[in-house]
Design brief:
This protein is α+β, with helices and mostly antiparallel strands. The protein has 4 helices and 14 strands.
């Protein structure tokens, strides 16, 4: 791992700190190293290249130069009983950051829980991980990977990148937008009813709302109409018999995919 620059205020979010690296194994893993060493959190780590990037469910995440790789460390984020809402907070923030950096409006749609889509193709990945530290402190890391200039072939989904769509957005400029927007969204989320606003913003970008979808998990596969998000951000689907089911985890696909 190369040496980082010293910590400095994060772009557009002076209450957060920021480290920049040329090459790391994983920005998420480095955040956890900082947490175990006693860092108080609110720390961004960004890298030009990751050699061991990972996605949800242990999948590999391709991390070539030119794309954006950044992770945010939060220690004991409050409210602790609503940490499960953070993936949707992160998705809304990243979608707005892409619009801000690209000069677009509602360019990005959201696929539950936190994938960004443009014209049905996957633009990014968001990975939330947590770990209990010494003294019962809770480290939560939000990791972001965004295809700015290139995209890998994916076995499960079609992928895309901003440059191939005609948008010239550097990893650095996108990170600056994300740092500022996510600080604002976290401040909203911490309010007693703050997730209502986040949920509304998420649904405003929902890619498959009202459409038939299939949700696959390790245990089951369920098909129905994407009806809503519940008050905690879980997926609500209506099945053919009219019954509604709440889905807490899984991968969303369109029928036939």
């Amino acid at each position: 791992m190369t040496q980082s620059n010293s910590e400095c205020p994060a772009p557009g979010a002076p209450d957060f700190r920021y480290e920049a690296h040329e090459n790391v194994g994983s920005t998420n893993s480095l955040c956890f190293e900082r947490a175990r060493s006693g860092h108080p959190g609110r720390l961004w780590i960004r890298a030009d290249v990751q050699t061991s990037g990972r996605g949800r469910r242990g999948r590999e995440w391709s991390s070539p130069a030119g794309n954006m790789f950044a992770s945010l460390l939060l220690v004991d984020p409050e409210p602790a009983d609503r940490i499960g809402e953070l993936p949707l907070v992160a998705a809304v923030a990243l979608a707005e950051a892409v619009d801000k950096a690209a000069g677009t409006l509602q360019l990005v749609k959201l696929k539950w829980p936190n994938d960004l889509l443009i014209e049905g193709a996957k633009l990014s990945g968001i990975l939330l991980e947590s770990e209990t530290l010494a003294g019962d402190r809770q480290a939560v890391v939000l990791g972001f990977g965004v295809n700015c200039v290139s995209h890998p072939p994916l076995s499960l989904y079609q992928a895309t990148d901003l440059r191939s769509l005609g948008y010239q957005v550097s990893a650095e400029s996108l990170f600056g937008s994300l740092s500022a927007v996510l600080a604002e969204k976290l401040a909203v989320w911490r309010q007693p009813e703050g997730f209502r606003s986040i949920r509304k913003d998420w649904l405003g970008r929902a890619a498959h709302l009202g459409k038939e979808i299939t949700v696959r998990s390790a245990q089951q596969e369920i098909t129905g109409t994407f009806a809503d998000l519940d008050e905690r951000g879980h997926l609500v689907i209506q099945q053919a018999d009219g019954r509604q089911r709440t889905i807490y985890a899984g991968d969303v696909f369109l029928p036939g995919v």
